[in-house]
Amino acid sequence: MSIAKFLVRRTLQAVFVVWGVVTIMFGLRAVSPGDPATLMLGEGATAETIARVRAQEGLDEPIYVQYLDYVQGLLIGDFGYSWRSNREVEAMVIERIPATLELAIAATVVALVIAIPLGVVSATRRNEPADYGATLFSLLGISTPNFWLGLMLILLFGVWLGIFPTGRRPVGLVEAIWTLVAFGSAGDLLTWLQHITLPALTLGTYFTALITRLTRSGMVDELGKPYVTATRAKGLPAVLVRYKHVLRNTMIPILTVLGLQMGTLMGGAVITETVFNWPGLGLRLIDALDARDWPLMQGIIVFIAVAFVTINVFVDALYSSLDPRVNDE
Prior knowledge:
Layout: H1 3-31, H2 36-41, H3 47-57, H4 63-75, H5 89-94, H6 97-124, H7 129-143, H8 146-160, H9 173-183, H10 187-223, H11 226-233, H12 238-268, H13 270-276, H14 281-291, H15 294-322
């Protein structure tokens, strides 16, 4: 199968996944208790006002008509209006994307910088103290809940030592980089780094542990193959064999997990953003849940689903180029 056909198939699968998420979310909204018009207007609204709002919003239409109207709106980029703030949902989602994206990328960078070297060392020094230490670190990282780790980091580095701030996002990464390039001032970039360090460590700890274990197991498997013996017999340096040949062949499963986890980090930052008051999609989703603002909740979930499947398709394209055998699956 060619790469083009492979990607077309993956894209069609992604479209069906997003459609499924949209349908499930709409179904949950339809069966949830409470009248949407009453939620929009408050308990003190008169029956006439509620009836008028229901007619304006199409809530008095049959459920299948509401569903078709909602899907048609999504196809043209219309996510509706927030019941709480009466703002366009797409605007409320878009304005929070940069903060969540920054946090997800920072957590991924932290994980890769720590996990891959640690996994390589653990695999090449099996049954040594370095291997035991990496294994213990992985076990602790996977077992530690994010919310508890975030609170402990705030308590230690924010309250007791006073090294890092405990929340907020006073400046975005794009603005900080622009300030550095345009004016030669690194103050905003340093401020951004200070504020994102603790949330990135909290969100990236589980990911770090997962990639460390995956790298170690992949490296151990590859180191036992005949081509490694052949490269060593040719006199190639051990570092070159590990990082150019063995690690490259280990990267396909790592890329797969990386793609899946990037999508997961986009949607799974809810707890971390809440703990650190980080103004991203996760924090906005919690606010929408508290207010039972269904259009906003649906918009955020649909965006996360689209981001998740888009990242997966991109990863499929990347590792299909690394391993052509994937195209035949």
